[in-house]
Hints:
heterodimer; A: mainly beta; 7-stranded mixed β-sheet; B: mainly beta
Amino acid sequence: ETGVTQTPRHLVMGMTNKKSLKCEQHLGHNAMYWYKQSAKKPLELMFVYNFKEQTENNSVPSRFSPECPNSSHLFLHLHTLQPEDSALYLCASSQPTGNEQYFGPGTRLTVT
Amino acid sequence: GIQVEQSPPDLILQEGANSTLRCNFSDSVNNLQWFHQNPWGQLINLFYIPSGTKQNGRLSATTVATERYSLLYISSSQTTDSGVYFCAVGNTGNQFYFGTGTSLTVIP
């Protein structure tokens, strides 16, 4: 799927660093999502934005801070992460919430 | 939340064989999708199928919503079909629930 892009594709960061993940969708959707996929675990929904408003926060630690400036862009700001936060972070979009989701290629994050 | 169980967890097939993957869910849903995750992590949409039957080439899917299960059929499997197949469901609201996946390996 080329409709949802994510950058960077790979990221290695230390526990004291601050970095941001970016997601952009070109599908005209109004809802965007962040998921975390750890090894041997199902995808876990982290955040949902609908028309730029956050509608779901599934008890995600505050070291993960989402931002949705418009319906096409979604960011995940990272700070003081832990090694157990190493995972594949996937962005998705849909129109409207609850309908078919389309995923980006993911950012593989390693926290050292 | 909705519990989603997929079976089998692992499957090894000879190229050309057929297979059936199953997804059971614990509550009524109005959204069900099947995905194929390739070795690079990309989730590829296969079917959006909250009910009924759909076919796309060698793949087809059936969801029986009243009995809370969905099946994904792969016929004449190819090595490029290898990867992990996920079922995801949702009902009212913004929550989606993924199963743990079926890891498929097709050997030549």
